[in-house]
Write a structure and sequence with these properties.
seven-stranded mixed β-sheet
């Protein structure tokens, strides 16, 4: 059973930076697709960033492109989200996700991920 645990959320100021981490227990972590999603109050969960399998290419939602960076540390089985130039509208609960059989066309689809963390809350003050 794969387990994911996020950390690093909290309070940040607009224009500031924060780093989220997700520790994974997946046996085949290095070949899995990993991603970050977020859920704003009253909204559906949405894609933020992802890394498709072991190919290393990264994908971002338009509203975070150029500000957020996703990376993975296969040795530590960790998914990292570096967030810069934070905006008030980045306030959300952030979830990491992992799937071992993802196809590229489904990368941004919440329903295609088998494993999820419990989420970490980020509040950005304006």
């Amino acid at each position: 059973q794969v387990q994911l645990a996020e950390s690093g959320g909290g309070l940040a100021q607009a224009g500031g930076s924060l780093r989220l981490s997700c520790a994974a227990s997946a046996r085949a972590f290095s070949s899995a697709t990993v991603a970050w999603f977020r859920q704003l109050p009253g909204k559906e969960r949405e894609f933020v960033a992802g890394i498709f399998r072991s190919y290393g290419r990264t994908y971002y939602a338009d509203h975070v492109k150029g500000r957020f960076t996703i990376s993975r540390d296969n040795a530590q089985k960790t998914i990292i989200l570096e967030m810069n130039n934070l905006k008030f509208e980045d306030t959300a609960v952030y979830f990491c996700a992992l799937d071992e059989r993802m196809i590229l066309s489904s990368l941004r689809n919440t329903t295609q991920y088998d494993y999820w963390g419990q989420g970490t809350k980020l509040t950005v003050s304006s």
